[in-house]
Amino acid sequence: MKYIAEPFKIKMVEPLEMTTREERVAALQKAHYNAFQLEASKVYIDLQTDSGTGAMSQNQWAGIMLGDEAYSGGRSYYKLIEAGTDIFGYEYIQPVHQGRAAEKVIFPLLIQEKGQIVIANTFFDTTRAHVGLAGGRAIDNVCPEGKDTATPFDFKGNMDVAELQHLLDEHGDRVVAIVQTITNNSVGGQPVSMANLREVYAISQEHKVPVVIDAARYAENAHFIKQREKGYADVDPKDIAREMFSYGDYFTMSAKKDAIVNMGGLIGAKVQSELVNRMKSRVIPYEGYLTYGGLSGRDLEAMAVGLYEGLDENYLTYRIGQMEYLGSRLEAYGIPFQNPVGGHAVFIDAGRLLAHLPWYQYPGHALAMELYLEAGIRSCDIGSFLMDRDPFTGEEQQATAEFTRLAIPRRVYTQAHLDVVAEALKSVQERAEQVPGYRITWEPEVLRHFTSQLEPIA
Ligand SMILES: *Cc1c(COP(=O)(O)O)cnc(C)c1O
């Protein structure tokens, strides 16, 4: 597959440190074989996350200089609200400092009693955590195709509609919200179709249950709909986004993804209501006054610009093209991955690539370690290492798949960087059976992947 050339040129560069294999061996030892504990300066190509790691444009940086730092009613706030209203078509747009801040404001208002249920096409971890913290029960309900890594399907992020009906019939008014995560991050950045958004919204209205769109990758999802869904080939991504959001009542958004800022988030409500007033009462103590929401005026300005840049058709073609290019190189080498690739990452099927390792030696983590040793590439495990122990039995839990995620920051790396990644994976593949598994030597009670210490198994 051809690489789609960048629709921009480079004006400022950030030098990268080149390390030797010996230096990387020492750095990993010092980090207790946990990539979160590596010094970023010792990383050559950083594919740990696409969150807040994008490169801002000249217009965003110009916006930084225009930022209005008035405590209330700043110019930059109004510019952001204008952009948000224009793109999403919602009456209430609220800046917050990042996606999880939006979740913290909204979910305790939707969940009023312990044990009430929220159903998602798949929860992102912080969203799941905020449902839990509010006393709710989070149920994942992705379509069956989303669970099958090897068989291509256009919209693996979709909600399972039949199962949704079933859950609503079974639990009745204990279901207090439905979440559509676009794109569906946890199943590999897989898109949700317009048809699925429309159908789920129709069902939600019948049952009078609000739909919350978890909108971090609204633009990448719009691009997939344009590419893959009948009737949208000639529609502008911005108009596709507007229709997507018409099938929701609220949204929470991490602007660190498709809005290409280093920090920021949004809450949206389709109509002004009493619930919106209650949201405002929570925003002020948690995030600050309504017109800055935990951000500087300059951040609001950069977000207002980024919300549009994320939807630019040429940018999106290049952006998704990077994933597809990397996927095609891996396919040529016979390296297994979640197929088709997602909008923000390529998920290597480490369970199959390192088939000699049992799941409890964390193949996804083992591959991430090996990629770092091989070429200074940082990635992360999305598999059994990421799964915490069962809180009741303390047993290790097996993930449904053992992935190593290569998340691609926006507008940061070039074709040559992606070639380095593909070739490093090929070298690891050639000596796959020599790659060691890992054991944990120390772990915290929860969210162990961030701080655990590990060692290779000799
Ligand atoms: C990143 C992300 C969040 C959380 O946003 P933060 O800005 O990291 O707090 C929520 N949902 C999805 C789908 C995400 O990708």
UniProtKB/TrEMBL annotation:
Belongs to the beta-eliminating lyase family. Its cofactor is pyridoxal 5'-phosphate. Pfam families: Beta_elim_lyase. Keywords: Lyase, Pyridoxal phosphate. This is Tyrosine phenol-lyase. InterPro entries: ArAA_b-elim_lyase/Thr_aldolase (IPR001597), Beta-eliminating_lyase (IPR011166), PyrdxlP-dep_Trfase (IPR015424), PyrdxlP-dep_Trfase_major (IPR015421), PyrdxlP-dep_Trfase_small (IPR015422), Tryptophanase_CS (IPR018176). It comes from the Bacteria. The keyword Lyase applies. Coiled coil: none annotated. Residues 46-423 form the Aromatic amino acid beta-eliminating lyase/threonine aldolase domain.
